[in-house]
Design brief:
Layout (H helix, E strand, L loop, with lengths): L1 H27 L6 H8 L3 H7 L3 H26 L3 H17 L5 H7 L6 H24 L13 H18 L6 H16 L2
Helix pairs in contact: 1-4, 2-3, 4-5, 4-7, 5-9, 6-7, 7-8, 8-9
Length: 198
Amino acid sequence: MEGSAAEGERSHTATRILDAAQDLVQRRGYNAVSYGDLAAELDLTTAAIHYHFPSKADLGEAMVARYRRTNADERAAIRSRTNTVRERLTQYVDLYADVLAEGGLCLCGVLAADNATLPKAVRREVQGFFDDQTDWLTSILAEGTDVTAQLEGCESPRQAAELFLAAIEGAMLTHRTPRNQLNAYRASLRCLIDTIAA
């Protein structure tokens, strides 16, 4: 019983570290966050953080892997509760808008900006995230019966998916502040959805 309680406490602490790291990275960027920042945020020692994540690369890899799993669950939920391309794309945009509303940016969008300085394992997870998004969007666009036209210049659902994802990520940067830009973010992307779905 004692071993199980200790394991639960370790798991709880690791989750707290991942939560704090994700929040700080989404607001500041990967290179602007240190173990010292996390220790201060969580009232832990840096040694305690190193116990759970021996290196920043380990922490980054675990953080992005968790982000990918959460996002996969959210995309699966969208697919199960909606029937049209319009509904699916709108709810997908809302995932990103919710992050923006909290004052952050997409974790992997932030990390992609630091790509040249990221550890290899973190770069691999970030690329996996974008591949996940592109694959999912491609499948949504390819199977939709309410798709009225390809986006101009796009020769395939995959090209349209790549453009849509780029618009979502890019618009987060241009609509980050002030807070009332959130409505403008949603409105801009809904215009793009209008060109895709009836």
